[in-house]
Structure formats: structure tokens, C-alpha cells
Amino acid sequence: MPLDPQMKAILDKAAAAGNPPFHKLTPAAARAFIRSRPPMGAPESVAHVEDRRIPGPAGQIPIRIYRPIGSAPLPAVVFFHGGGWVVGDIEMTDPVCRILTNAARCATVSVDYRLAPEHRFPAGPEDCYAATRWVAENAAMIGADPARLAVAGTSAGASLATVAAMMARDRGGPQLGYQVLWYPATDAEMDTPSHRNYATDSYYFLSRADMEWFWGHYLSSERDKANPYCAPAAAKDLSGLPPALVITAEYDPLRDEGEEYAARLRRAGVATRCTRYEGVTHGFVGMAQILAKGRQAVEEAAAALRETFGR
Length: 311
Prior knowledge:
The chain is of the alpha/beta class. 35% of the residues lie in helices and 21% in strands.
């Protein structure tokens, strides 16, 4: 399908700016570029925003808590930002978390987990699991209901969300009711048609070359590719995971691995819905303030969360 007109305008503007692709930058330069991008519009207002630091496996983990108008206790979503495990932070996903908080009528807890290559696998997943457990154990403190808890994330953050769900299953809790996976990175082998189709073209924001760069910084060794806590597609058993919504983008090297992961969840008996958004690229949810399909993808997730948690 042709590019969505709004998406094409965004891509053309980015191409005209001449920004270098991730794989040609150092991690420090890539982070500086992400931080330097101008906002895509005024952020939505929410009833309450609070920054905290919570205990983690290797020190304090920064989190940001959002709450909508409404009485406690609220359902809670633990949210993990994207950025290939190398870039990104809670500021980058602040606009999306605000939209999700209002649309899902839930508390959202955004997690600033440790980044590679300074902190390679398994640092990020362990931080994300620790944060998920902290939210469950301290739900009353933040106005949340521990019996109505979900995880969500974009890209690498979606990978971390489903890994946190695996860890919760394997380590005796907490009990999770849902997982929202926007264009997840699940397979370190990168051997799919969508990866081959977008091998070198950075016009679509993310290329196979970029993903090779991200995985190269994230992996501690080649053996990690076979570890499901690193690459969820390596899991031999996906049963017992919470119901899922997987959202993919047509012009995205991660499209096929996300859709295959959704199919495997269904084959394992996990209630899973998979929606492909045509005409858009990787990262489109992060453009929800200016891209109608990005907003739609957040609202689809919010509707699924409201249905799950009786909102």
C-alpha cells in the first residue's frame, strides 16, 4: 500500500534535514540526536505526573508515574520506551504515555531502564522486571490496583515488555493481565522478508543496518541470541503469558517478526490480536500527536486495556 500522506510528509521532512542513520553514529551521538528533536506538539494534560526513583538490581531506576482524572485504585500499565536498547528515555515517550493514560483511564508507569552498550543484556530486562514487580508491590502507594496490571512498550520496549511478562511467569509473579506490544523486536537473526526489503533504506526511519547496530550494542555475546529473555522469538514455550495486542507497521523491518510472534502466541493458547497499520513506518506510535494512524494505534491499545480491566 502507498505511504499514508501524513507519514510521507513526515518522512520527506526528515529526509530533507539530512539526519544520519543510527548505524553511522556513536551511541552518544545517537542519544544527543534523539534529545535534540523538537517536540511534535503540546503534550496532553493529565491529572498527575510524578517522577520517582525505585530500587533496582544495580541501583536506583528512574520512573515517571502518570494518573488520569478518576478515583483510585486505577488499573496500571508499566511502560517501556523504545530506542533499540541503546537510546531513548522517559522524556522521549512522555507524549505517548500521556495519551495512553487518558485514553485507557489507567495509571501509567514509564521506566528509564539501563541502556547498552554501557549496560548490555541482561541489564535492561532485569530493570524492567524489577520495576514491574515494584509497581505490583507498591500499587496502593501510587493509586493503582495490583490485580489490574499490564505491560506495554514500543519496539525494543515492546521486547522488554514481553520479556518482563516471561519473567513474571517464570519467577512466580506478579500476575499480569495484558501486554501491548507495538512493533516488537523479537528475533536477533533478522532473517525475514521485511528485514530484507528494508536492508539499507533509512528513509523509513529504521533499516536492517540500524537493527544490526542496535543488536550489536545490546548483546553480551552471540549466545544471547538464543536466550528468550533477550530475543523473545527464541522462547520454546510461550504458554501462560498474558493476553496480547501486537501492532505492526507496513514499512518496518520488524514487521514480520512481530506478526510471527503474535502467531506463535496464539498457537501457544495466548489470546492475541495482531493489527498491521498500512502505509506507516517503524516508530509511528511515537508520532501520535501529528499522525492520525499513530493516535489510532494508541487508542486501539487503550480500548483493549479498558476491556481487559473493566473500564
